[in-house]
Write a structure and sequence with these properties.
The protein has 16 helices and 22 strands. By secondary structure, the chain is an alpha+beta fold. It folds into three domains: 186 residues, FAD/NAD(P)-binding domain, CATH 3.50.50; 140 residues, Polyamine Oxidase, Chain A, domain 2 (Alpha-Beta Complex), CATH 3.90.660; 103 residues, protoporphyrinogen ix oxidase, domain 3 (Orthogonal Bundle), CATH 1.10.3110. Helix 1 packs parallel to helix 8, helix 1 crosses helix 16 and helix 3 packs antiparallel against helix 4. The longest helix has 19 residues. The chain is globular, with a radius of gyration of 23 Å. It starts with 5 loop residues before the first strand and ends in a 5-residue tail after the last helix.
Length: 486
């Protein structure tokens, strides 16, 4: 009788955990799944904490309900699989604003990540150079080409649309600049339409029509118990052995699979525990054998592990850069807040904050009877991260001052505050990113079919994308090892 498969997943974020659940569901009975997480906490950028006695997200806040084709997103499907669908809640206030000339203006409707499908609707925020968006008799984007979002939009609609609309929208998601970010990676629906349409406005309308949304259908959701409940449920339902504080330091191919060196950076396990009995001891030793390995870690740690078995892939993967951010959350006693979900800040406004969310306004289930409001601001843009060198106290003071200025009224002194720093959190996808990733994966599959890559560094940001990435990599592993139980 053949022994069960042994699959090692490196990385305990939502990507790795979604992969573990998919393996449990689809791999043959008895498959042994082990998740190695370098830190002491699962979930990666999903982290529900507490402030002033109430729950609050210190990382990702929500997920998209629909996928780009208009179907249920991978995050919602996973939540349903885990039995948490009844906990999904939606924003009670959806209108957001932009800071323009120091004041708040509503985000105009009819845009796709800030790119307008109706020029009249954005005129109050930005003046489009509409005459430039004329039909030149050919599609905007040649087949298989990629450009930066900023380059395309500036050429067709002018600087104000980029600086006041597109850049803050992309900055809120990626902490990057529209002039640097890949159109194909960050706005795939628009890229597909641009390969057919002759004007940018036409491409936006075509992209929107390709994935229609029912009137009133929610765009975003979160879980009433916090997103950490998703992490906990995925870890539990996967049935995987979870090893926290377990750094995978080296990865080597063997004639039958892979050998992982696992242990603290300065004091790796000496292997003596492997002599103390069976499978448990093997898992605790410094040398761990696996039939397949799924790397669900950021690109640079993945590149270090790939340097031995796949040096060319390591070079390609390791070239991806990341932005760092800080999230400053304050509990404010009965502040005067507008009825908005929050606001975005163009870099041209000269503020430290790039976005703010009024948590207890946006999410009705978080509203508190004591009148405390939870307000969060995001700080840090790619290439301009000196602000993150400020102390926590200085960050809080600056954010408090800038929020008061934007709102036009002094905010009360916070009764509690929290600063969450995410170093190297958000991948920066330059044009051609997806092609480079596809080439790297093709080379990796050819050399080592039982080694797979998954995560935001390769496929895009957001919980649904990460879930789908992990599930796809799990399916690749199952295929490489001989097929599923289904």
């Amino acid at each position: 009788m053949a022994r069960p498969w042994r699959v090692a997943i490196v990385g305990g974020g939502i990507t790795g955990l979604a992969a573990a659940v998919r393996l449990r569901d689809r791999a043959p009975t008895g498959t042994e799944i082990t998740v190695y997480e370098q830190s002491g906490r699962l979930g990666g950028k999903l982290r529900t904490g507490e402030l002033a006695g109430g729950p609050v997200e210190f990382g990702a806040e929500s997920f998209l309900m629909r996928d780009p084709a208009g179907g249920e997103s991978a995050a919602v499907s996973l939540i349903r699989r885990l039995g948490l669908a009844g906990s999904i809640v939606h924003p009670t206030v959806g209108q957001a604003a932009l800071v323009v000339d120091g004041g708040l203006r509503p985000v105009p409707g009819g845009t796709l990540v800030g790119v307008p499908g109706d020029l009249d609707k954005v005129a109050a925020v930005a003046r489009p150079a509409a005459a430039a968006d004329r039909d030149g008799g050919a599609p905007l984007l040649p087949a298989d080409a990629d450009v930066s979002v900023g380059a395309l939009v500036r050429d067709r609609l002018g600087d104000e649309v980029v600086d006041r609309l597109v850049d803050p929208m992309l900055g809120g998601v990626y902490a990057g600049r529209a002039d640097d970010l890949s159109l194909v990676t960050t706005m795939p629906a628009l890229a597909r339409a641009a390969r057919v349409e002759h004007t940018l406005v036409g491409a936006v309308r075509a992209a929107q029509a390709a994935a229609p949304r029912a009137p009133g259908a929610p765009v975003f959701g979160t879980l009433a118990g916090g997103l950490s409940t998703l992490v906990e449920a995925a870890a539990r339902e996967s049935g995987a052995t979870i090893r926290r504080d377990a750094a995978v330091r080296e990865l080597r191919p063997t004639p039958t699979g892979w050998r992982l060196t696992v242990g603290p950076t300065r004091d790796p396990d000496d292997g003596s525990r492997s002599r103390r009995g069976g499978r448990r001891a093997e898992l605790e030793s410094s040398q761990v054998e696996a039939d397949a390995v799924l790397l669900a870690v950021p690109a640079r740690p993945a590149a270090r592990l790939l340097a031995g078995p796949a040096p060319e892939v390591a070079t390609a993967v390791g070239g991806l850069d990341y932005a760092s951010v800080a999230l400053v959350t304050m509990a404010l006693p009965e502040p005067e807040l507008p009825e908005l979900s929050g606001f975005l800040v163009p870099a041209t406004e000269g503020l430290l904050i790039k976005a703010s969310t009024f948590f207890t306004t946006k999410w009705g289930h978080l509203r508190r009877p004591d009148g405390l409001a939870l307000v969060r601001a995001s700080v840090g843009r790619y290439g301009d991260e000196t602000s993150l060198q400020l102390t926590d106290d200085d960050l809080v003071a600056t954010v408090h001052r800038e929020l008061s200025k934007v709102l036009g009224t002094p905010l009360p002194t916070p009764v509690a505050r929290h600063v969450q720093r995410w170093g190297g959190a958000l991948p920066q996808y330059t044009p051609g990113h997806l092609g480079r990733v596809a080439a790297a994966r093709t080379a990796l599959r050819a050399a080592h079919p039982t080694l797979a890559l998954a995560g935001a560094g390769y496929d895009g940001v957001g919980i649904p994308v990460c879930v789908r990435s992990g599930e796809t990599a799990a399916e690749e592993i199952i295929t490489a090892l001989g097929g599923s139980a289904a």
